[in-house]
C-alpha cells in the first residue's frame, strides 16, 4: 500500500521531537561510527557503519508502534523554511522486532542526502491495531528532523576515515591456508592476519587467541604432526613480531587428525592445510553503540 499525500494526516499518530531539543548526535570510535536522532515516545533513527562493513540506516524501536507491512518515506520542507514541494522518496518494508526498518548503503545515502539538504523525513506506515483499536485505517507517522544534522554529519564522516579494516565478527574465527608441504601463507592471508592484529591491538577486551595447526592427509602421520607445529609456530611468530603479546596466545598442533574436507580431492586437501585462529573476548558490563565492536 502506497500513500501519495506527504503532509501529516489528521488521523495519524505522529511521533516527533520538539524543535528546541531535537538534535542529531554522533558516537564515534575505531570500531563503529553512528549518527542518530532520538524520537520521543518511539525510538531513534540511526545511520551506522561498523568497521569492515558498509553504511546502513535503521530505525530502533523502543515502543512498538509500526505494524509489519509496507511503509513510505517522504521528504518534507520543514515548517520554518520557505514553502517547497513534498517529495515521495521510496517504500520501506516494516518487520517485527527492535529494528523494524533497515536500509542498506544506497537507500541510506538517499535519506542522508535529504537531511543534509535540510529536509524533514517522514515515514508513514500502519499502526499496530492495539495502538488505535477504534480507528482502522489510521496512519503512524515517524518524523525525523534535520536540526543539527550537518554538524553531527561532519563528526560522523571524520570517524569513517579512522575505522578499523575489520570488526570482531569478521576476525573472531579465521584461517590461513598453505600450499603443499609449505609452512608459509600467501598475501591474501597475510592481509587477513594484519587486519586481525590491528583489531586485537585496538580492543582491550580481547583475552586470548587460540592458534591450531593442521595438515592434509598426505604423507606420514609423524611428519604431518611436525608440519602442523611448524605452521602454527610460523603464524605465532608473525603475530608476536607485530605486537601481539605471547601471553595472549594458546598454540596447538594436530597434524591430519581434524580434516574439514575430504583428503581424496585436491580441493579438499587444500582446505585441510590450514592454521585456524579463534579470538576470544569478554563483554564489558555496558557498551555504547559506537564502542561495541
From TrEMBL:
Residues 165-283 form the OmpA-like domain. InterPro entries: Bact_OuterMem_StrucFunc, MotY_N, OMP_bac, OmpA-like, OmpA-like_sf. Gene3D superfamilies: 2.60.40.2540, OmpA-like domain. It comes from the Bacteria. PROSITE patterns: OMPA_2. GO terms for cellular component: cell outer membrane. It is found in: Cell outer membrane. Keywords: Membrane. PANTHER family: LIPOPROTEIN YFIB-RELATED (PTHR30329:SF17), STATOR ELEMENT OF FLAGELLAR MOTOR COMPLEX (PTHR30329). This is OmpA family protein. It comes from Gilvimarinus xylanilyticus. The lineage of its organism: Bacteria, Pseudomonadati, Pseudomonadota, Gammaproteobacteria, Cellvibrionales.
